[in-house]
Amino acid sequence: MTVESTAGRKPRRTTAKRAGAKKPPAPAAAAGQPELVQLLTPEGKRVEHPEYSIDLGPEELRGLYRDMVLTRRFDAEATALQRQGELGLWASLLGQEAAQIGSGRALRDDDYVFPTYREHGVAWCRGVDPTNLLGMFRGVNNGGWDPTSNNFHLYTIVIGSQALHATGYAMGVAKDGADSAVIAYFGDGASSQGDVAEAFTFSAVYNAPVVFFCQNNQWAISEPTEKQTRVPLYQRAQGYGFPGVRVDGNDVLACLAVTRSALERARRGEGPTLVEAFTYRMGAHTTSDDPTKYRRDEEREAWEAKDPIQRLRAYLEAEGIADAAFLAGLDQESEELGRHVRDAIRLMPDPDTMAIFENIYADGHALVDEERAQFAAYQASFAEEGN
Amino acid sequence: MAAEKTVKLPIAKAINESLRKAMEDDPKVLIMGEDVGKLGGVFRVTDGLQKDFGEDRVIDTPLAESGIVGTAIGMALRGYRPVVEIQFDGFVFPAYDQIVTQLAKMHARALGKIKLPVVIRIPYGGGIGAVEHHSESPEALFAHVAGLKCVSPSNSADAYWMMQQAIRSDDPVIFFEPKRRYWDKGEVDTAAAPGPLHEAVTAREGTDLTLVAYGPMVKVCLEAAAAAAEEGKSLEVLDLRSMSPIDFDAIQRSVEKTRRLVVVHEAPVFLGTGSEIAARLTERCFYHLEAPVLRVGGYHAPYPPARLEEEYLPGLDRVLDSVDRALAY
Q1: Chain B residues with CB inside 8 Å of A141's CB?
Q2: ipTM of the predicted structure?
Q3: Residues B87-126, buried b or exposed e (16+ Cβ, 10 A)?
Q4: pLDDT digit string (tens) for B128-138?
Q5: What pLDDT, in 10s, does the model give residues B79-112?
Q6: Residue B161 in contact with residue B18, Cβ under 8 Å?
Q7: Predicted confidence (pLDDT) per residue in A122-175, tens digit
Q8: Nearest residue of chain A to residue B144 (CA atoms)
Q9: Number of H helices, E strands in chain B
Q10: Is A156 an 8 Å CB contact of chain B?
Q11: Residue A295: CB partners within 8 Å, gap ≥ 6?
Q12: Residue A109 contacts B, CB cutoff 8 Å
């Protein structure tokens, strides 16, 4: 470094010094993790929690394992299809299977789900045909399913918008006198959005039967959680006047128990709960980013040791709940699902050209009618030229 | 409402009666917004409704516009028909994201399987000596968005009927209320069969030139036409009523008769509703036009402080000046 350049940097040193003097204390999340609700250790050992107990039979435990394995397989298949050019983009849920299956299996049929764009596991729990999830990513539609048929709303790409839709829907549920509940999914990045803060305000003020399920997967594209908050996310709820709880997001049993408890609280008319599922996005944000640019390999390796599927498998095997026949059967089912997804995507038709003009308005619109007719005439002119 | 069919009401009261009627007719109709309950809204448009329909149907909300519209979307998904009030035009922007990215597109994204019957009421426009952000005309920003419909009544009868039609519509409707006309009285025939919501109407017949306006500017144009008549000029005034869709057929019919067109609105002229009308009518009526389509409206400037708004807003003289220019071709 030359003398000149050092002189040139002088103001910057001053700024750095000033910033250093005022530097806030390290966030609690980094200083030491708050206790997670955990029912299954990373080694697959069953532990008890004083507030959240759960008692599942072998069939239910195998069901949770099956859901996670098949969801991971579906996700892997979709990622591969993106690499093969069949999908324009994919948002992988790899690593978040427990958070999604645990919370998804806590829901009743008459509950209503407002997902973001990564809730493939929740969609699975709701009985949404997984191939329906691919349409938006393939570019054949912008949503593509009837939200009312499975009480599973369309994916929402704008971050956090759906937290307000969930709150309004829950306000409607309460007005109807129904005892169902509503759940809104979003990520740690969305927690910075005003819409999420406003959803917290509205849900608290109206005591809406809604559960906010934040999957803190540690990264909002390349921005770490530390860029979103100085306090653990679940603690935000306190400021709004409702409970927040942090659950081990890689523990399917704990996610199930905590979500079930929050939903029951909503059904009893006691209002919203914020659940922060502390988990990890093992892959990229979407197939268009490269995590090696912004995070260390060691971090992923540390989280891989907490893999949600491996830990449940260890428990099932130790308890003798998953025998070789069950696992082999599941392998076969997994292969069949993969094949089904591959076949479906290749058979998925491009939309009809005139779909551009469909369903813009329920009651019609003169301009759309005019442009549709012009476009149809334009298209027809090629056919005439061809003749 | 009095027993006779026709009553004289100011626009604000006509909207109030219309909301009351819609709530009586359909238990799913809800009103939401800041101060809409006990206060009855800062313009008293929702006066007395909470008293009669309860806090469950006339819902005072937190001061958060995105929250108001976002939760209204959720309510609509649950089967309700929310009518939300944005207190003033310039305060709709925190909700703009919800309106544009969510409300406008959700019907299409669900392949038509769900409907979003949400009405967003926006008292808009200037002329009341208000402070910053309380006098704007953002209608073009909404009319530009596919999936939304935008309307604005100019008189009490339209205010009464168009509001009920907007509430009954299965599409999201942005309902622009001309706030400086709230206290203008007009006849309302509550037994009449209203015309279609998106049809323009001829407010005054004429033969020499067509003035197109909507909302607060219709009155200015009618006054301009009356003044011009004294000079022997016959101006036709078309009340557009709907900015999305726009009734281009009605404008075309009028222009084919008068052969001259001036569009008047408060919003900035640049890329405004008038630009679209000028472009379309030039395409449709090129050989009928004796003069270029002229526009009268706001400048490419922030809405000015109240002491300057009379210079900014199109008044009688500015409208007549453009009329003279068009007639001089």
Answers
A1: 109, 111
A2: 0.96
A3: bbbbbbbbbbbbbbebbbbbbbbbbebbbbbbbbbbbbbb
A4: 999 999 999 99
A5: 999 999 999 999 999 999 999 999 999 999 999 9
A6: yes
A7: 999 999 999 999 999 999 999 989 999 999 999 999 999 999 999 999 999 999
A8: A367
A9: 12, 14
A10: yes
A11: A219, A222, A224
A12: no
CA dihedral B162, B164, B170, B172 (to 10 degrees): 60
Interface test with A, best of B71, B84, B240, B277 (most A CBs within 10 A): B71
Residue in the block written with tokens 């807003």: B313
Determine the distance in angstroms separating the CA of A46 from the nearest CA of chain B, rounded to an integer. Answer: 39
Residue B41 Ramachandran class (φ > 0 left, ψ -120 to 50 alpha, else beta): left
- In this structure, chain B runs to a length of 329
The three-class DSSP label of residue B54 is coil
Extract the runs of DSSP E, i.e. beta strands, from B192-260. Answer: 201-204, 209-213, 235-239, 242-244
Alpha helices, DSSP H only, in A191-293?
Answer: 194-205, 236-240, 252-267
B273 torsion bin: left (phi>0), alpha (psi -120 to 50), beta (else): alpha
Are B62 and B115 contacting, i.e. CB atoms less than 8 angstroms apart? no
Residue B45 neighbours by CB distance under 10 Å: 27
Hey, are the CB atoms on A361 and B71 less than 8 Å from each other? no
| pLDDT of A10 higher than 60 | no
Instruction: Return phi, psi of residue A363, to 5°.
Output: -100, 15
A161 contacts in chain B (CB < 8 Å): 70, 97-98, 101-102
Would you please indicate which residues of A are annotated as catalytic (active-site) residues? Answer: 281, 285, 294
List of chain A residues whose C-beta atoms are within 8 Å of the C-beta of residue B198: 366
- State the best of B55, B77, B142, B244 to mutate against chain A, taking most chain A CBs within 10 Å: B77
Mutate to test the interface with B, among A142, A152, A183, A360 (most CBs of B within 10 A): A360
pTM score of the predicted model? 0.94
Q: CB distance B114–A146 less than 8 Å? A: yes
User: In chain B, what residues touch A147 (CB-CB under 8 Å)?
Assistant: 77, 110, 113-114
Rounded distance, CA B88 to CA B65, Å?
11
* Among candidate residues B276, B257, B164, the one with its CA nearest the CA of residue B214: B276
Nearest-CA neighbor of A88 among A24, A139, A43, A20? A139
Cβ of residue A132 closer than 8 Å to a chain B Cβ: no
Instruction: Specify the pLDDT at position A383.
Output: 80
**Minimum Cα–Cα distance from A143: chain B residue:** B109
Distance CA A186, CA A212 (A): 8
Listing DSSP states for A89-147 in one string gives: -----TT-HHHHHHHHTT--TTSEEE--S--HHHHHHTT--GGGGHHHHHTS-SS-S-H
Instruction: Specify whether the CB–CB gap between B53 and A143 falls below 8 A.
Output: no
Q: Quote the CA–CA distance of A107 and B181 in Å, as a whole number.
A: 51
Amino acid at B60: D
Whether residue A107 lies within 8 A of chain B, CB to CB, comes out as no
Token readout for A151 is: 């009480």
**Minimal Cα–Cα distance from A141 to chain B, Å?**
7
